[in-house]
C-alpha cells in the first residue's frame, strides 16, 4: 500500500463521516466472513441472541434468501439463455438448413471450419486485430477524456453530453454517415488529409485500409466507457489526492498510485466488456460494408468480422449447423479470455 | 466498527425511498400488464378475420415505391373476391430475407412471399408447385401473353413456382446530353465491345489537373453483376451445366474477366472501386451504364435534366448473349392452407389490369399485349425512348443458374479474388485460377446441391 | 477547498484549465462532425443529397422534411410503441439487476460464484445463434407479434451487463453496513432498498440510461418478433424509409436523416438530465470523499 494513503489517517477529520473503511482495506465480502455465523436458522450472529432477532430468523437464512432473490434471474437464464444455447450446441453437430430436419454429422462442422472454409481464418484474424487495437485505444481515450471531464470547468455537462452523443445514434444512421466521411473522393477525411498534402487511401474500398477505417469508426463510440470511468473517478476520495500532493507526488504519480488503483474495478469492468464487445462486434461492420457497396465483409474479406461471417453462413446461406459451430467456438474463446482476465484481475484490481 | 448516519434521518429517508420505489414498481407493472394485454390483441398469428367463410391470406412483402399501386390492386381483388382477404405485411427491404427465414423456421411462413431476387434458390423448397394450376388455367390466364424468357425464369426443372410482376433485364444505358456535347453518335444495336470502349474513351473527359469530369462508363463492383455478364459474353461459363465444377479459369472466362479489369486499368473508362460519383448513372457524370437495373428508371426520371436512353448491350464474342434477366415474382408457400385462393390472387396480381398499373408507374410489362400498348403511348418526353429495346433484350438474356451453390460461390469464394484484382492489381489469370480452385473445393465439401450427400 | 463532488476547485491553475477546455473543445468538434452532417443532410432536398461533390450546407433549409417524415409514416404510433417498450425494459432491468446483484454480493453461499460465472457467460454468446431456438420458443408461447419477447427477458435477469455493473458497485460498499442493518433489525429488501440503492444511484442511473439507449435503438428484436405494423418501434419504422425504393439509389436520405435526428432527441434529453442527477446522487449519499 503506497505510503501516502496510510498517512492520510493523520489528517484531522473534515467531516463527521467515519473514513476508516474508505481508506483501510476491508476484506472482500465474499472471501472472508467478518462475523461468525452459525448455519442454523437463527439469523443473529452466534452469541448475540435476543427475542427480537429470533423473530426475523427466516429472512436471515443466507442460502434461502440467496436462491429466492436469484430465482427470477435463474429462471430467465434457463429459459432464454441456457435452453437456446444447448439447442444450438446440438445444432452445431448437425447439418441443418431449416428445410429438412437436422442431420447428425458429429464434429464435421468444426473440422470443415478449421480446415477447409476459406473464410474462417481470415475472419478470425480480422476480429482479433480489431479487438487488439480498438479496445486498448478506446479505453485510453475514454479514461483521458473522463479525467479531463472530472475537472471543474465551464460547461462540463455539455461536454459530457457531447462526448456521449455518438453512442446514442442508431447504427443504421451512423454507419451511413461514416461511409460518407470515409469516401475516398468526397469524404471529409480525405479532404482534410489533402489539405495537409496527404493523399488519402481508398478506405472502405481498399483491402489494407478498410479495417483501420472500421477501427477509427469504433473509437468514436468511447462514450459508454467514458461514463463508467467518470462514475468511478468520482468515487475516488479527494483526501487521497491531497495526501499525495502533500507527499510530493506529481501528476503522473498521483495518477499511477491513486487514480488507477481506485478505479481499477471499473477499469476491469470496462476492459472485460470491451473485449467481449469487440469479439461480438457486428453492427458496424455489417452496416458500413454493405452501405459502402464493397459487399458485406469486403473487399476481399478485409472487414469480414467473425460474427459477420457467422451471420452470412446462417442467414444468407442456411448453413445453420456451421453457424452454430462458429458461435460455440466464439463462445469458448470469449470464455477463455474472460477467465484469463479474471485470474489476472485478482492481481491488479484493487477492491476496498 | 462503522456507524451508519444518524438513525432518525436514516429511517425517514429510507421509508420514503422504499415507498417511492415500491410505488414506482407497482405503477410500471400495471402499465406493463396493461400494455401486454393491449399489444397481444392483434397478436394471434395469422387470424382469420371477418366472416366465417372468409379466407385470409398473408403476403409478406418489402416496402417499395409502388406501394400505393400494390394496395390498390389488393383492394380491387378483394372487391372482386369478397371471400378472400389479403393481409399485407410490409418489411423493410434490407431485412426482408431475415424476416422471411425466421418465419419459415418457426413454422409460420406467410402464404405469399417475394421470389424476386437471387435468394430464391434457397426458397425453392418452401414454394408450392404451381404447375397443376398453371396447366389448368393457362388459357383463361393468357399464359402465352407472357414473354417466354420470363416464363422460363419462373420455372425450376420444368415446374412452375412463382408468377412474375415485372422484370429487370441487362441493358446499356447512355446519357444523351453527354454524347451530344462530345458529338458522339449514340450507341446502336450493332455495337461491339470495341465500339463501346472507344466511345467510352472519348467520353471520359478530364480537367487540367487530370481529375476526371465525366467517366465513359460505370462499372459494377462488389458482386457478380457485371463480371458475370462479361465472362458469359466472352463465351465463358462460371459452372458446367450440372454445377459440379467451376470453369472460371477457362480461356474465355479469363478473357471476359480481363475485359472487366481493363475497364479500370487499361482503358481507364471506369473509376476504381470507391472513386466514382456516389450515385452512379443518376449523377449525370457517367456517359454510359453497363447492365443497370430497370428498377432505377423512376430514379433517373426524378433527376431534372438527365436525358437518357437505352440500347442493347454491346456484342461480345458470341453476339448479344450474356445479359441477365431477373423477375420480381410472388410465390405461394408450400404450407399454405388455401392454395386455391392464393392462386386466384396470384393470377389477379399478374393479370393484364394489374400489369397496366405497373407499367403506368414506369415498370416493364410481363405481358406482350400490354407492352405493345405501351409503345403506342410513347410520348417524346418519355424515358427511355427505345422502350422496345428492353423487350428485345429478353431474347438474349438468361436467368441465373438455379443453384444455391452459385450464389454462395459467386459472392463468398470468387468475389474476394475479384476484389483483389481491382484493389491490389492481382493478375486476372492468377485470380481466376485461385477462385476456380477454391470453388471446386467448396463443391466437394459443403455443396448444398442434392448430389452432395456428405459434408456440413 | 474540497467539495462533495470530489473535483478540483481553485487549485487548478487558470492556464491549465484553459488548456483542458481547448482540448475538450477540439474533441467535441470531432465528435460532432458526423452528427452535424446528419442534421444538415436532413435539411436538404432529395437531389441535394445525391449531389456530387456533396455540399455541407443546403441552399435552403428544408425544415419541411421533418413534417414530411413524421407524416410519411405512422410516427406517433411508432414513437408510443418505442416509449412503452423502453420504459418497461428499464423498469425490469433495474428491478431484476438490483435483486440479483444484491444477492450476489450479500450472501456468501456456495453457489454464488458459480451462478455469477454462468450469468456472465451468457454475455459472451453471440445473439445470432440463439435467434432461431428463441424464436421457436416464443412461437410455442404465442408471444410472437406481441411486445413480450422484447420486455419479459429484462424482468428475468436478461440484462447481465446491468447486473455485472451493479455488482461491481455494490462491492465497493463495505459489508459492515449490511451487518449493522441486520442487527438493527432491517429485512433484506429494506437493506437493499435503503442502503444499497441510494449508494449505487450513479450506477443505477448509468444502467437506466444504457438500457434506454439500447432498447430505443434496437432494431433486431422488433424486426424478428413483430410483424404487425401497428406494433413497430421507431428503428423499424425508420428502416422502411431506407428500403422504400427497393434499391439504395432511391432512398430519400434527407428523410432518413430527419427521422434519425428525431429519434436521437429523447435519448439526448434523457442523458442530459440524467447526468445532473449523477452528481446529486453522489452528494446526497455523501459516504465517499
List descriptors.
heterotrimer, A: mainly alpha, MetI-like fold, 16 helices, globular, C: 289 residues, mainly alpha, 71% helix, 0% strand, disordered N terminus
Describe this structure in words.
The complex is a heterotrimer of chains A (352), B (456) and C (289). With 352 residues, chain A is mainly alpha-helical. Chain A has a domain at 107-348: MetI-like (MetI-like fold, Orthogonal Bundle). Chain A has helices spanning 3-6, 20-23, 51-55, 62-91, 108-116, 120-149, 156-164, 171-181, 188-195, 210-219, 223-233, 238-246, 251-280, 283-291, 306-316, 320-348, and strands at residues 94-95, 103-104. In chain A, strand 1 (94-95) and strand 2 (103-104) form a beta hairpin. In chain A, 49% of the residues are buried. The model of chain A is unreliable at 1-49 (pLDDT under 50). With 456 residues, chain B is of the alpha/beta class. Chain B has 2 domains: 55-169 and 326-397, D-Maltodextrin-Binding Protein, domain 2 (3-Layer(aba) Sandwich); 171-321 and 403-445, Periplasmic binding protein-like II (D-Maltodextrin-Binding Protein, domain 2, 3-Layer(aba) Sandwich). In chain B, the strands form 3 sheets. In chain B, strands 1, 2, 3, 6, 12 and 13 form a 6-stranded mixed β-sheet that branches. In chain B, a hairpin with a 5-residue loop joins strand 8 and strand 9. Chain C is mainly alpha-helical and 289 residues long. In chain C, helix 3 crosses helix 14 (253-285) and helix 13 packs antiparallel against helix 14. Chain C is globular. The two termini of chain C are 12 Å apart. The model of chain C is unreliable at 1-10 and 281-289 (pLDDT under 50). The chains are: A mainly alpha (352), B alpha/beta (456), C mainly alpha (289). The interface between A and C is large, with 117 and 109 residues.
Topology:
The complex is a heterotrimer of chains A (352), B (456) and C (289).
Chain A lengths: L2 H4 L13 H4 L27 H5 L6 H30 L2 E2 L7 E2 L3 H9 L3 H30 L6 H9 L6 H11 L6 H8 L14 H10 L3 H11 L4 H9 L4 H30 L2 H9 L14 H11 L3 H29 L4
Antiparallel strand pairs in A: 1-2
Helix pairs in contact in A: 4-16, 6-10, 6-11, 6-13, 6-15, 8-14, 11-13, 13-16, 15-16
Chain B lengths: L6 H34 L14 E8 L4 H14 L3 E8 L4 H10 L6 E3 L5 H4 L7 H7 L10 H6 L1 E2 L2 E2 L1 E8 L1 E5 H6 L11 H11 L1 E2 L5 E6 L9 H7 L17 H15 L20 E6 L5 H6 L5 E4 L11 E10 L6 H11 L2 H9 L7 H9 L10 H6 L4 E2 L5 H21 L3 H18 L11
Parallel strand pairs in B: 1-2, 1-3, 9-10, 12-13
Antiparallel strand pairs in B: 3-12, 4-5, 6-12, 7-10, 7-11, 8-9
Helix pairs in contact in B: 9-10, 13-14, 16-17
Chain C lengths: L13 H29 L3 H5 L13 H9 L2 H32 L5 H11 L4 H15 L6 H8 L4 H12 L4 H8 L4 H12 L1 H16 L3 H6 L8 H9 L10 H33 L4
